[in-house]
Amino acid sequence: MSDLLNDELAVLNVGIEAFAESVRAHGGAARHIDWRPPGDGEPALAWRLAALLGDPRDPDAPGSRVDRANGTAAARMLAAQPRLVDIALQARDVWPDMGRTLLHAGAPLSWEAMCAPMRGSMIGAVLYEGWAKSPEEAEAMLGRGAIPFAQCHDWQAVGPMSGVISQSMPLFVVKNTTHGNTAYTNFSEGIGRVLRFGAYSQPVLDQLRWMETVLAPAIKAAVAHAHDGIDLKAIQSQALLMGDEVHSRNAAATGLFFMAVAPALTGSDFDRAKAAAALAFVAANSQFFLNLSMAAAKATMDAAHGVEHSSIVTAIARNGVTTAIRVSGLGAHWFEAPSDTPEGLYFPGFKQADANPDLGDSAICETAGFGGQSLAASPALVKLVGGSVAQAIAYSREMAHIAWTRNPTMSLPNLEFAGAPAGIDVRKVVDTGIRPVLTTGIAHRTAGVGQIGAGIVRVPMGCFTQALAALADALGV
């Protein structure tokens, strides 16, 4: 505020931004504060919100019950210890009854409703599995309902962008050793023209088969040779100190993972040439750890799910059409609203109009305190998404207003090593009007083009107002 206080006319404008613009037009200094009334401007919802806020004078009040539930959910979240314990060489090894089901990111949607990048991923998966001989045949099968769909989250899994998982794809197996639950995710293909962005050319399919037959067995050998698996929480925590926010930037985390697997793999009896190829692939893919970060967050937040009356968000997922959230105390229901399109920097030749609305399960990272919650840790990333270090710090400070707690094991150096905000509280989002910030890759709206940039997007407020109303219903207010 010092820049304003030193001016002759200093105005803080709340509400309609045009008022601030009029002050500036007459030579004054004005700063606009993006504020909305509680309850998203809906009086009835605001009254229900008031009843759900904690009251220390009345331990039996609905809000106090929510507070206690949130304390339980947050304790589970903070106590989680996700570890990479195995590699399933094929998804059918985990789910024997999977058959031809294709898993996808986000909430349920039909073939007809899918965005083009997700459709492309589904076509590619059908070709990869050999269920069709051409893209046209694959599309016809998908169009007539011959291939069933399911959501990754409902199978204890997560997948970036389209999130597609089919029966032959290898999976990381991540166990929360504190609570005993397990989460799964597929392998990172790198960036550019890859399946998760809707590409299905022959090189894409060839790489997927190499990952199935060479990369996955190599990582499996390394994990088997490592004592008690690989501590993903420790890698995430250290990576925050090294410039990652462990969602859209994973350079440090990937390096730390490489350091964990390379000695284990070279110390095993795995084929030397294949081991070298696998390690070279990981070393060349700075985003390799993303899928592991997602699975670690999934294993963490699943342990916090199912606490009656808790308002903590345990999943954020996008299918390219809608963004949806799940809330600890509200079961498996998805609260959905139309997805926004990310804003950021684009690769040469692309622009905002080329972007698909937000896509992928990777926002599970934000629910556990990474990504947008931890942007202050990653000055390098904010340049990529068109921001500044000051903006990154501001985002993390802003996210603290809607988080239930901070994670003391996830330190943010640029915030004096404060713990990352963690545990998004539906009530606080609706009360403050602050929507969670997500860091994200940007997919072209046409299948097959791939990633065209990286940016920032916010979760639609409609997800939270719906969830708040459902929580109020459950508590009878």
Structure description:
With 477 residues, the chain is α+β, with helices and mostly antiparallel strands. The chain has 3 domains: 2-33, no CATH class; 42-78 and 302-475, v583 fold; 82-294, Alpha-Beta Complex (Enterococcus faecalis V583 fold), CATH 3.90.1710.10. Helices cover 40% and strands 19% of the residues. The protein has 17 helices and 18 strands. The chain has helices spanning 2-5, 17-25, 43-52, 62-79, 91-94, 116-129, 135-143, 202-225, 232-240, 251-266, 272-284, 290-304, 364-367, 379-384, 389-400, 426-432, 461-475, and strands at 10-14, 29-33, 82-88, 102-104, 149-151, 157-158, 171-176, 182-185, 230-231, 313-319, 322-327, 335-338, 343-346, 359-360, 403-412, 418-424, 437-443, 451-458. The strands form 6 sheets. Strands 6-8-7-3-9 form a 5-stranded mixed beta sheet. Strand 10 (313-319) and strand 11 (322-327) form a beta hairpin. Helix 10 runs antiparallel to helix 11 and helix 16 crosses helix 17. The longest helix has 24 residues, at 202-225. The relative contact order is 0.15.
